[in-house]
């Protein structure tokens, strides 16, 4: 009985020894494996911040309501939707009031001409009498009359010329034309009361009218590159920002201030068309954890094509866990986003 009990105790002790040896071997294996394993880091390819995208509408650079000359519409030369060149004759009006003035001026001119003709005829008779006279006293008197007549005739001639000029001016106003102030496309509606055409012209030159909020205002400036894409057709064009306002749009009902700006475009876009304005951003943002400090200088661990790391000096600002890069590394480069103290220059990293 005692012998059996001793065997059991010996067996238990042997089992404990074997378990202890096994535990030691497992620990040594894990420790060795952890020493041989390469560190694993997160690697990120950096890029510029996404484009700032705003919505906009295509509008004409100049939209002008044209006012018809006074008078009765005599002839309309255009239709709604027509494209016209600068100075094209859109319509002609006839002014009866001016025509009446022309008639009166013509009658007055005719009478003045008749009066001038009579004065010239009368003076010619005096000249003829002067030429035939041999009496010195009579000739002196006749000469004075001739001189006075010449002065009167000169005055009447000047008055006649002024009346002729006035008549010509009036005649030019009887029929007046409405001209296109610039090249563009016409919109024509009829006045509800008179039925006369009311013409609006939209210039060929056009632009995008868009707005930027106060939060994004510093992300663009005049001459900032822009890509415009029509929502309906996907037609696109590159251009630049113009006329960025420093004054907010007072007609905007939002609680956020918005600032108008324009982008010139060409004829591939239609008036009123909805577009997207993409404004590329030069800014590169990194996780602040990716930036390390060595001797008061900032660095990131840059990863080369062989997956080896090297310290790369950078400059920028940290804010709310984000590092906004100023200089030091370009878009497309790869960096380690979770560096630790064990990371060494030239070390191969595993993503």
UniProtKB/TrEMBL annotation:
Database matches in Gene3D superfamilies: 2.40.420.20, 2.40.50.100, Helix hairpin bin
One example GO MF annotation: efflux transmembrane transporter activity
Gene Ontology CC: one annotated term: efflux pump complex
Protein name, as recorded: RND family efflux transporter MFP subunit
Originating species: Lacticaseibacillus paracasei subsp. paracasei Lpp41
Taxonomic path: Bacteria, Bacillati, Bacillota, Bacilli, Lactobacillales
